[in-house]
């Protein structure tokens, strides 16, 4: 955003006032952060990138701020890898993130290898579903820009919660403009979710010919957008490949970037 | 050439009927009731202070409690509570310290503070009146109705505080004129001296000040000379500022022993509110809460409640106290309690114009305390990697994020690593293995062992954990893992990655020492 002004004119008060009035008029309602003056307007500010371009495309640019996005995936579907990826992107950008995870299943070494800045991550492990929802609400109220609620592996411990509790959580996220990603083994949040993505059964990728000992190299996940409020998206299904690190030890360089494959909706 | 030093200006903060005010600070719901504060036991109990309703009924300080009840049968009587009065005195001192660093504790309900040099903060001709109003507001914020007098000496300031209206300002050099109409009894002279002066027909300080100094000294001695100097507005008492660190303590002596938690929490919440108000006035938060419980018939218990970071949330503190007492109830009925806060500076946030927004440290502190309260200890924090090779290693440390960067870094693509959910503790498995001579081991199928099977104890509650079952479609392995071989807790494992017919991709191992099978991770 630039302004063409005659530098010799602005010293006279009337001209100065004129420039100011023009500035205020052009800035009014357009500039939301000081960084826009340096880097220009970022129209993707309403979306939060997960670091997986194919998945972000599926959601129309990333996780929408102020909404509850539900990611449904059974075991070995790539759901956990996507959660780690979203947390890595957020914390690498200098933001703090809040992870509510049932089951104490986070591996700090692997999380660090995945690119998560652990110092910016608050990891909470409740035992019961009710506590998990309450914890997520506390994280939203504390002002964390990204709150991830992962219900772990089935069976989810604790009694079912009413749809009202999910709606309350979604309203809290909307009030704080927080990105709330709910990763569940089965559909849970009901009508509170703005978008629902289902991670289908993934395909393990093995290396090795007929008689050679096999070696796991990755997992190919398929994500399908199964619910979207408002307009129908152009892309409804994408595939992503997750790769295995060097036996899950820390890696200095990033592994192969996720492949992008997109299946477009047939007309 | 020596410059004449301006006179010190001293404010006196006075709380009338202090024992009553201290009690009403702890039980504000009694403010409009007919309440007396008494001292002593049984029929010898004497009224010390009373609310306006009671005084209007004719009850006076010094009456016995039965006499007072005779005048007003529906009287609410409360004994003097040393803990309440001590806390109220501390709160009064802290209120004064919001205005001046030099504050003298002059006894129950009475504080002197040096207000010289405050004209920059409170400019103009009414500056001192504004100082007085600020002192009144600070005291009122601590729940104490105070009066203020400002003068060039302690005596004049005290007498000004005792005379309406409040704040009462005695201008510089006009102390003598202010004191002149006041009666001599205000200075509380010895009885013999007062009798002598009365016999001379001297009733006011003005009349006393007009007597010749030398003749007063000759006839009335040193006491008379001091009284004469005071009447002339010559105050030789200096301010003695307190130097000890404040103690943030609030408590209450209960009227009757409590055995249930709810009534105690009602009183505890009020005490915590007062404590937090005091901390807040000093820009502090509570990092640790000490709870002293006085039990019936005798004895006391002390509890210590740690908080992850300093907080000012009464609700959080109250919930912590509730949970602690539910888990560890006191040994007997409660007759009194005291909260002592260990203060700490709350963390502050530096806002950034171009970088990501930083979290409010106060909100984070409150959230951590609430999480600890709701989930129990050790369930919230920053992941902490640990040296070693076992996947289940790792723990948590306190959440203290570094400052946000000044500029938002450009977005990066994910490394795209496959996730692994660690199963803590590892799931015991039954694995069918086909082993042929000269060929490598082949895993055929596996399933999770249930409680009671093959050494799985019933208290492991395996049935409530994720189940793994199915025929093995692909298995990669084994590779060995050896960890802490030099110690007694060493591990030697053989790992496989297995794809099951159900689509589950798991990581399993066989313990080389016991030959038992476990699953310690699921790829996801």
Structure description:
- The complex is a heterodimer of chains A (267) and B (524).
- In chain A, 27% of the residues lie in helices and 25% in strands.
- Chain A is an alpha/beta fold and 267 residues long.
- The two termini of chain A are 39 Å apart.
- By secondary structure, chain B is an alpha+beta fold.
- The model of chain B has no long low-confidence stretch (mean pLDDT 87).
- At the A-B interface, α4, α5, β5, α6 and β10 of A face α13, β13, β15, β17 and β20 of B.
Helical amount among residues of chain A, as a percent range? 25-40%
Largest beta sheet of chain B, briefly? 6 strands, antiparallel, barrel
Tell me the β content of chain A: 25-35%
Distance between the termini of chain A: 39 Å
Order of helices and strands of chain A: HHEHEEHEHEHEHEEEEEE
Features:
heterodimer; A: 267 residues; alpha/beta; ten-stranded mixed β-sheet; two-stranded antiparallel ribbon; 7 helices; disordered N terminus; disordered C terminus; B: 524 residues; alpha+beta; six-stranded antiparallel barrel; 29% helix; 28% strand
